[in-house]
Design a protein that fits this description.
about 120 residues; 4 helices; about 0% strand; elongated
């Protein structure tokens, strides 16, 4: 019989990390399939899971995902405001394209950093 070498703290971190991993995946699927329209669902789950991850590196990943979502919404709205003007349509398309790329980068960067067991940088600390 192989002894269980994982401590309770290690199991907890592993569970918290798995939750953040699934939420990155959920955000990515919503982003790719609905351009983020359904991303409010994993956003709510991030808000619910973040307090459980307090004082761990996983906490920063929930914050990263939450901020990524809200900035994606802000820049999507900026693009929408530009779109309602005839002359702003090219600008709107550029804003939306850059926003899409930025959000994709944030999801990939967060996912790979989580896989390395590292915290994401954020200005709260």
């Amino acid at each position: 019989m192989i002894p269980d070498t994982m401590t309770a703290d290690t199991r907890t971190i592993h569970t918290l990390q798995a939750t953040a991993w699934w939420l990155y995946l959920f955000h990515a699927v919503c982003f790719l399939l609905t351009l983020g329209i359904l991303s409010f669902v994993p956003l709510v789950l991030n808000y619910l899971a973040r307090p459980k991850a307090a004082h761990t590196f996983v906490y920063s990943h929930h914050t990263w995902q939450i901020r990524s979502f809200w900035w994606y919404i802000v820049w999507g709205c900026v693009g929408s405001v530009l779109y309602v003007t005839f002359i702003g349509i090219p600008g709107a398309l550029i804003v939306w394209l850059l926003t899409w790329g930025w959000y994709a980068y944030r999801l990939i960067a967060g996912f790979t950093t989580l896989d390395k067991h590292l915290a994401m940088p954020y200005p709260d600390h």
